[in-house]
Amino acid sequence: MAKDIEAAPPGGEYGAKDYSDPPPAPLFDAEELTKWSLYRAVIAEFVATLLFLYITVATVIGYKHQADPAGPNAADAACSGVGILGIAWAFGGMIFVLVYCTAGVSGGHINPAVTFGLFLARKVSLVRAVLYIIAQCLGAICGVGLVKGFQSAFYVRYGGGANELSAGYSKGTGLAAEIIGTFVLVYTVFSATDPKRSARDSHVPVLAPLPIGFAVFMVHLATIPITGTGINPARSFGAAVIYNNEKAWDDHVRTATYYPMSLLI
What we know:
single chain, mainly alpha, 2 strands, MIP_CS, channel activity
């Protein structure tokens, strides 16, 4: 295994630290299925994704209701609601909060694209990756289902928070936006959680959920006007299942088919 030595700066303000690369996660470990820590982590992923979808989709529906020219705020509809900036903050802020809360339990993935990327890097086993993705998708469906139950009067009218390609954009543009956005997120996750970096720069404390949340925020600012931002397959899938609209399904399937490409580039 490779070993790095942290070099002290002039003046020797901090000591050297050894770093050894952790061994790759086993592809399949039957013993892992007998451990409570695995199921606790799966439950954490389910709950975190449920809360993520509930807060963010409710924010989207609430904004569209407040900014509806035919709604009760018609007089100042153009200036009502949180706007795209507020929606981006809702997504980025919730990721920051939930990654911070679940990082010590499950690693704080909350996104099948992140889980898949970490699996390709042999950071998690196949068993854990599959269970995480199932839990994330089920949590997303339940989270959006709560929004529909609480805001049934507005849910269908305002698109159900589902990802759809905006008018004026080609499917190729939407696909490119999603690939780049997903790459930015996964790249940030790998950088923020790199143990070698933590050992080398231990004198510079970094709160990993912060850059991850900011990455989600920045990507949403760029891609909300194009696709509504679907860099999280569970978020797109959960909204599409509950909304169950033909256009949403069509746009979702065409884009989600190529999600793995963004992790291999």
